[in-house]
Design a protein that fits this description.
The chain is about 50% helix and about 10% strand. The chain is mainly α and about 120 residues long. It has a single domain (about 5-100), classed as 3-Layer(aba) Sandwich (Rossmann fold), CATH 3.40.50.2300. The chain has a three-stranded parallel beta sheet, sandwiched between helices.
Amino acid sequence: MCDDNEDTLEYLEVLLRRAGHVVYTATGHGDLMPLINSVRPDLLLCDIYLPGRNGFQIAEQLRAQGEHIPIVFMTAFDTSLYRAYAQQVEHAPCITKPFDGDKLLRQIESTLQTHVQEHAFVA
């Protein structure tokens, strides 16, 4: 998970751990990329506005590296432009802060399930 707001990271870390998820946190691109390379997460929960590279740029970099990590974007700005870009270009959901914890958990589970179904091996 990547967000430059420590309060948001702390809230999400507690929420996700209580739901049974293993959580790793980063505050920006510089922390995130080495973490992704070493941990290989099942999903990336990523703020759009970050210092250095934004969430969309991070997603582009991951794709360029051949990574197929599902992403759920977060933003404090509820605009249709961000949602449209996330859905149409990144093929990822975008949730608005502050968010309902239960709704966020449902979105994460749905995104993980969709990713598994899209990448299932058929013999």
